[in-house]
Amino acid sequence: MKRRTFIKLSAVSAAGMVLPLQLEGDVAAAARLKPSTLITPNADFYILQIGEPAELDAAAWRLVITGLSEKRIPPLRLEDITAMASVTAMRTLKCIGDPIGTEQMSNAVWKGIRLRDLLEKVGPTPEVKVVVFRCADGYHTAIPLEDAMREDTLLAYEMNGEPLPTEHGFPIRLLNPGHYGTKNPKWIMNIQLAKEHESYWEKRGWDPIANVKLATMIGTPSEGEAIPGGKVYTVSGAAFDAGNHGGIKKVEVSIDYGQTWEEAEIWAKDTPLAWVLWKWNWQVPEKSEPVEIYARATGNSGVTQDEIGIQVEPVGATGYHMIDAAIVMP
Predict the structure, then answer these.
(1) Are residues 244 and 196 in the same domain?
(2) CA count, 13 A, side-chain hemisphere, 137
(3) How far apart are alpha carbons 65 and 75 in whole angstroms?
(4) CATH code at position 282
């Protein structure tokens, strides 16, 4: 008898509650998928910053809120923040500079506070247009005040049930849904309420809004992989739109240069703010030949990725992810 396991996931009910969900699956089969788990372990979560990670002492760290506010509050200790009403949520982060199909995209369960709960303690004045984040590594960025006041914009202090690892922003980082990692700063030291701000990457010509585009990644097969002919091979990967197209409706795979498409199975998902994982079982032909494998996603808005990417409101889509592989016979 094959060894089997229950893969623990979570789902969101119509009432907005996070509910447990279990999928029965074969251990060996799940291990062949990539990603193989809905939650990325902390050790495998992608890391990117402008320099070395900032190593901060929790006992000495303080968060200072400055700028255009109705009142001032003393610098906040970490324990002041963790004592506030907390929120636990699953979120995927993706790098703005991530070439199509590479792996600077990961998913975790985070715990923190709503940013608006903190800002309401000081009261932004009517002149405030942006909220600026200044970080211990010298990085700085800003988001619109209306984004900062959204219910799902968080200051996170835990990641997958553990205190934020140093490389992921200990003790506090921002989770700004719908936006690439440039707008989710780490090692926050100062929050400033301002009329305007030119952020670190905007000064260097990068997109000042940084909305996540509809994207799909093929995890298996890898580039150049030899695929056994005459057998069933599972093509797998992830798709993500950060909720900018209402979440992922479906993923499709093509092995004939995009002439026909087969719908993949979405085998793991949570909220539109987290990626979906998909798989497609392919009966591989019994002949040796090169093959190109394409994957594309369609959002709940109706937008579907095309070969070169598309520009539509509110935010576009990347081009297909394509993998070159080879069918080989024994």
Answers:
(1) no
(2) 20
(3) 7
(4) 2.60.40.650
Return the pLDDT at 49. Answer: 82
Residue 117: in which H helix or E strand, if any?
Answer: helix 115-122
- Sequence-separated (6 or more) residues with CB below 8 Å from residue 60: none
In sequence order, which residues have a C-beta less than 8 Å from that of residue 198 and are 6 or more positions away?
none
Residues 6+ apart with CB under 8 A from 204: none
Selection from 297, 245, 251 nearest residue 273 by Cα:
245
Q: Does residue 154 sit in the same domain as residue 246?
A: no
Three-state DSSP state, 6: strand
Q: Say if strands 321-328 and 226-228 run parallel, antiparallel, or are unpaired.
A: parallel
- Tally of domains within the chain: 2
**105, 109, 111, 112 alpha-carbon torsion, rounded to 10°:** 30
Question: Amino acid identity of 288?
Answer: S
Residue 253 has, within 13 A of its CA and on its CB side, a CA count of: 26
Is there a contact between 194 and 142 (Cβ–Cβ < 8 Å)?
yes
Segment 90-95 shows an average pLDDT of 95
Residues 88 and 169 in one domain: yes
Task: For residues 304 and 298, give the distance between their C-alpha atoms in angstroms, rounded to a whole number.
Answer: 4
Calpha distance 194→125 (Å, rounded): 9
pLDDT-derived band at 312 (thresholds 50, 70, 90) equals low
Decide the pairing of beta strands 154-159 and 162-163. Answer: antiparallel
**pTM higher than 0.85, yes or no?**
yes
Nearest 10 degrees: CA dihedral of 238, 241, 246, 251?
-30
